[in-house]
Automatic annotation (TrEMBL):
UniProt family annotation: Belongs to the ABC transporter superfamily.
One Pfam entry name: ABC_tran
Gene assigned in the entry: ftsE
Source organism per UniProt: Candidatus Woesebacteria bacterium RBG_13_46_13
Protein name, UniProt field: Cell division ATP-binding protein FtsE
GO biological process, one term: cell division
Amino acid sequence: MIQFKKVSKSFGTIKALEEVSFEVGKGEFVYITGPSGAGKTTLLKLILREYQPDSGEIVLEGVDITKLSDEQIPEYRQKIGVVFQDFKVLPERTVRENVEVSLAVIGVAQEAWSARVGQVLKLVGLAERADLFPNQLSGGEIQRVSLARALVVNPKIILADEPTGNLDWETADSMMELFEKINKEGKTIIMATHNKVIVDKFKKRVIKLKGGKNVGKEKVHELEKEPKKEENEKGEGKMKVKVEEV
Ligand SMILES: Nc1ncnc2c1ncn2[C@@H]1O[C@H](COP(=O)(O)OP(=O)(O)O)[C@@H](O)[C@H]1O
Ligand SMILES: [Mg+2]
């Protein structure tokens, strides 16, 4: 469904991604792992066409998305639902209204909103919370609102960037169970995370990034024994390896 072919992306002198290649099949659930600064968010933003690569191809359902024109991008983005760590819900809108915004943005007729929003709120377990405001919800519930907003437009792919990063363990667990349920219903999920506990518990295929490159397991183990502290101190983050990260 998605192929990266030797994709490179730099920001000035920082090589965020270097000749990264991988493939994700339809209906798969994969993790993108790697320490902070490894290029996980950059990779997701490339799929979203928020960034263009410097070189390489990104093929989604047979189309090289790097070649889409600006006019084609809004329609392309409807294939993708996004869930970020910093939930990005609208504080002055109710749960229901937060989800409706997604439908309004893509021009779905208002008559269809109620049924679709109702269905998706039920799926994420928020049917009873529809008329509450974000400040009346727990962190886990707010993260479910952002997932509902992503799902309501019926995307083919869900991109999740550290979606459990701000949640306690119990809440993160139930969020992961929800992602698994959504995956079983047919969505392809690409989740960036450096949470080893999550990766070990909810086993999926792992695409490892290290300083912008795909790496094999052996290499990561080498680095875990000998983290290069001096590079951490420069704040580049690329060689930052903590035991709990993968
Ligand atoms: N918009 C940007 N401008 C400049 N540098 C960036 C930008 N986005 C990411 N980077 C750099 O690219 C590298 C990879 O970042 P990122 O993709 O955010 O990594 P991760 O999500 O794995 O922590 C880092 O060194 C980061 O500082
Ligand atoms: Mg990131």
